[in-house]
Amino acid sequence: MIDGFIALYIFMLAAFVGHEVIGRVPVILHTPLMSGSNFVHGIVLVGAMVALGRAETGLETAIGFIGVFLGAGNAVGGYVVTERMLEMFKSSKEKR
Amino acid sequence: MDRASSLSWLIEASYFVAAILFIYGLKRMSSPVTARGGIVWAGAGMLVATVVTFLWPGMDNYVLMIVAIALGGILAWVSGKRVAMTDMPQMIALYNGMGGGAAAAIAAVELFGGEDHGLTFGVLAVLGGLIGSVSFSGSLIAFAKLQGLMKSTVRFGGQQIFNLVLLAVLLVLATVIVTQHSGPGLIAVFFLLALILGVTMTLPIGGADMPVVISLYNALTGLAVAFEGFVLQNAAMIIAGTVVGAAGTLLTQLMAKAMNRSLANVLFSGFGDTAAAASEVHGSMKPIEASDAGVMMAFANKVLIVPGYGMAVAQAQHKVWELAQILIERGVDVKFAIHPVAGRMPGHMNVLLAEAGVPYDVIYDEGEINAEFATADVALVIGANDVVNPAARTDPSSPIYGMPILNADKAKNVIVIKRGQGAGFSGIENALFFLDQTRMLYGDGQAMASQLIQAVKSL
């Protein structure tokens, strides 16, 4: 069970990690990095899958279905555009 | 260990690995040398987490699950592969909105399900639902605006008061839902109002400020995902969501700072509201022919190229890079000077130049390059306007006063490629164009770059 102070500790540490990881990023990577972090919260897909899997009524199932659909769009779309952008970043040494 | 507990051990272990891969991937993505590998690591984490989730005990609806993943995945895959690099900001907004919607959907299922999770989890579920819904509808509006589906900014009297009242009503509803375990009617009203709040919050914000808003919604979605992660007791969601929430908040601040706007300013006032008549610019704009401009650059020691969004619209980045390469072969020191908001969001111009094959080590940002303009023989400004307007430094009455700019006016010669004589995105006259050392090269960016290439080649 993750709750109480354990939950707070996880929350606090993860927040610092997020802040530190991005702290020294150069401006040239802001757009891909925003896209990359957008991809990472695509993990919401697994939560939506669990919600759909446990749904009982028709309404819950319908909302769960929409949730999984949207979550999959977030994860896949986020990955594709981030990968496309980052793939183009090359230094002049790699060119020659 | 029996089968059920070894299964849940496998799931927890996989989520742990996924969390590590996400953080490691983001870390690698923050340097251009390792960035390409970063997204692959994070992608591997996502794949592992998704696959093991099918093993979660006590689940049903597998067919629907697979259909939904296939539908959402294929649509996003195709649209993501096809989107032009210039349209990237709105695409990120769209995918981000989908994530927010998914978080809200999880909250809705949990709340409609009516299971009593206790006060803390109730609060987190409702808050996550609220934030996710706002992020969902807000991101869709941001997408519509940048995509050009929605041209005007809608403002009505008392809009901010309306939004505040709406938020207050939502918080009251949230309290009632959590404490009274209300029926489905009230929960539906709650989500509907949250969606409306996202719309009314985003509508008055102008296109130029939209990147900051998208980044903010990105951070909010992360937070919503983390909250729902607590509700579902899913460690991968908690960690990934919180990391994105924190990173996204920092990124939003960096972007707002680069644009010289505070976040409050972006959210609560429209750009242009304060744009009173700036002091008039005296003098005249002096035109130049491409052949003369070409000669000027060919015999220069140092040329700094300042590209703006106009260059990308004209699809001129390939020609500009070709021109730069010819100049480099002649021994000219060529560098690209990028303003943080040169594209539609910080870093967007770097992506557009990278697409044209410009290596990132000849690209410099404003802080690194500004001192070099004084020693540059030619500053070539193409499709950029407000970001090189010296009024931002000198004229306190200008609406862009105080915004960090590229000091192109310090170069010995300035060549400006521009389609016509009109003012820039913000409607402000540019004092740079009227300086003695400035020459205007009128025409389409791509055509002019080609003519410059010809001019240099013919020497």
Question: In terms of topology, how is this protein built?
Answer:
The complex is a heterodimer of chains A (about 100) and B (about 450).
Chain A: H1 4-23, H2 30-40, H3 44-54, H4 58-87, H5 92-95
Chain B: H1 3-29, H2 35-53, H3 62-82, H4 88-113, H5 119-146, H6 159-180, H7 184-202, H8 210-232, H9 235-258, H10 263-268, H11 290-298, E1 302-307, H12 309-313, H13 317-329, E2 333-338, H14 348-355, E3 363-365, H15 366-369, E4 378-382, H16 391-394, E5 413-418, E6 438-442, H17 445-457
Parallel strand pairs in B: 1-2, 1-4, 2-3, 4-5, 5-6
Features of the shown structure:
heterodimer, A: 96 residues, mainly alpha, 5 helices, 79% helix, flat, B: 459 residues, alpha/beta, six-stranded parallel sheet, 17 helices, 6 strands, 7% strand
Overview of this protein structure:
The complex is a heterodimer of chains A (96) and B (459). Chain A contains 5 helices and no strands. With 96 residues, chain A is mainly alpha-helical. Chain A is flat. Chain B has 459 residues and is an alpha/beta fold. Chain B is built from 17 helices and 6 strands. In chain B, strands 3-2-1-4-5-6 form a 6-stranded parallel beta sheet. In chain B, helix 5 (119-146) packs antiparallel against helix 6, helix 6 runs antiparallel to helix 7 and helix 13 runs parallel beside helix 17. Residues 271-278 of chain B have low confidence and may be disordered. Chains A and B meet through helix 1, helix 2, helix 3, helix 4 and helix 5 of A and helix 1, helix 2, helix 3, helix 4 and helix 5 of B.
